[in-house]
Write a structure and sequence with these properties.
Blueprint (H helix, E strand, L loop, with lengths): L1 H24 L4 H40 L1 H16 L9 H13 L3 H16 L10 H11 L7 H9 L9 H23 L6 H22 L3 H29 L4 H18 L1 H16 L2 H15 L10 H6 L4 H15 L4 H12 L3 H11 L8 H23 L1
């Protein structure tokens, strides 16, 4: 229901701004630009879905091998003490906990292509536990918030972009991103727990969250001992080695249980193709709304308004140039990536705005894209408090990113 109102708002606001620009400013290009954006974003949405087909087929095929090989069940048992408290409505030991873990792990490593199919598999499993098939359940919302908060340990793609655009030290945003995304995820968990009345003040959760804090501190310390070149090599190598290890472990587990690994892969790959086709209309709807909103000039007006407000309050407006990346990130990952590249090109990769745009890109995830794709894949229409929790986590990530950038740079 919330997505319905937001989608309508995109078009109404864009139309009103378009009329104002045409009548009072004589801008005859605004409506052609908006209509052109509808065709372009429709094409983009289809191309994204088409591009996902191969990746979905690959990773859902691998997941099917893991299911039949018992790996997913083993992960479910291992994570049961924590997941029972974070996802109290999921039966203890249910295979979906393993799928959720695999998705979160892929996100932490910055492996977006692997995370999406794993997440869609988890969502399908959660839907089997849903008594109201068109309404999001508490576990679905908690899972979506963990995704939208964007916990990332190794932001490989961002460092690659910085290197391509001439940054003297492409990895200098690594620690700020790690800290900002951690605060975003922590906020997402706390806010969603408050909505769902989940008690986090218990021995298991305190140990888990405390352990996460300790791990983050250890990672920061460890990478802090490396040179920039060593950090580049280590982060990229670790991500790819772990990903390949997952594939090999799943295959070996399937062989150990005498599973026909090839047939299991084909079975899962067929599910991936079906899922990719099913999400096309949802993705088109969201991206077209965003495209019209941008083409109308509404995004520019919003940024200018924020700059005026900050200046009126006597604050430093140095961060405002990077805000388009932060504002676009919940709406479109590719749009935010384009704005990040534009910020680095315009201001310089090593400028304050250039670095901050990278931290924005790494500290949150594409909330509306994830909601559209994940909920759309299982036919969820009523999202309840998912949007509110996801956006609050995004807001925490944005604030943390600004603070980290001022602190480090």
């Amino acid at each position: 229901m919330v997505l319905n109102y937001i989608w309508i708002a995109f078009f109404l606001i864009a139309f009103v701004i378009g009329v104002v620009r045409l009548v009072f400013m004589g801008d005859t290009e605004v409506f052609p630009a908006m209509m052109s954006s509808t065709f372009e974003t429709s094409k983009t949405a289809f191309e994204i879905s088409l591009g996902l087909t191969g990746v979905l087929s690959l990773w859902l095929g691998i997941m099917k091998i893991g299911e039949k090989g018992g790996v997913v069940d083993a992960l479910a048992r291992l994570l049961s003490p924590v997941f029972v408290r974070l996802f109290p409505d999921i039966p203890k030991g249910h295979p979906v906990t393993g799928s959720i873990f695999m998705n979160i792990a892929a996100n932490m490593l910055g492996l977006d292509n692997a995370a999406t199919p794993l997440g869609l598999k988890a969502m399908e499993q959660l839907q089997t536990l849903n008594s109201k098939k068109d309404t999001a359940t508490n576990p679905m919302i908690m899972f979506l918030v963990l995704n939208t908060s964007g916990l990332t340990i190794i932001p490989v793609s961002i460092m690659v972009y910085r290197a391509q655009l001439g940054a003297a030290q492409p990895t200098d945003v690594f620690i700020p991103i790690l800290l900002a995304t951690f605060f975003s995820t922590l906020t997402g968990i706390i806010v969603t727990s408050l909505f769902q009345r989940i008690n986090l003040v218990n021995r298991t959760m305190l140990i888990t969250l405390g352990g996460m804090c300790a791990v983050v501190a250890a990672i920061i310390w460890g990478f802090g001992q490396m040179s920039k070149n060593q950090m580049d090599v280590a982060s990229t190598s670790i991500a790819n080695i772990l990903l390949m290890t997952i594939i090999v472990v799943f295959i070996i587990a399937g062989m150990r249980r005498r599973v026909n690994v090839y047939d299991a892969f084909i079975e899962g790959a067929k599910e991936g193709f079906t899922t990719a086709v099913r999400i096309i209309p949802y993705l088109i709807a969201v991206l077209v709304g965003i495209g019209v909103f941008r083409a109308s000039g509404a995004m520019d007006m919003l940024v200018d308004g924020v700059k005026w407000f900050v200046a009126a309050c006597g604050g430093d407006t140095g961060f405002v140039g990077a805000l388009p990346t932060a504002l676009m990130k919940p709406l479109s990952g590719s749009g935010a990536r384009g704005m990040m590249v534009d910020a680095m090109t315009t201001y310089g990769a090593d400028s304050f705005v250039g670095r901050l745009s990278c931290i924005f890109q790494g500290s949150t995830d594409t909330t509306f894209y994830i909601l559209a794709v994940y909920f759309g894949s299982v036919g969820i229409r009523y999202t309840r408090h998912a949007v509110a929790c996801g956006l609050l986590a995004d807001l925490a990530g944005i604030i943390a990113a600004i603070c980290m950038c001022y602190f480090f740079f």
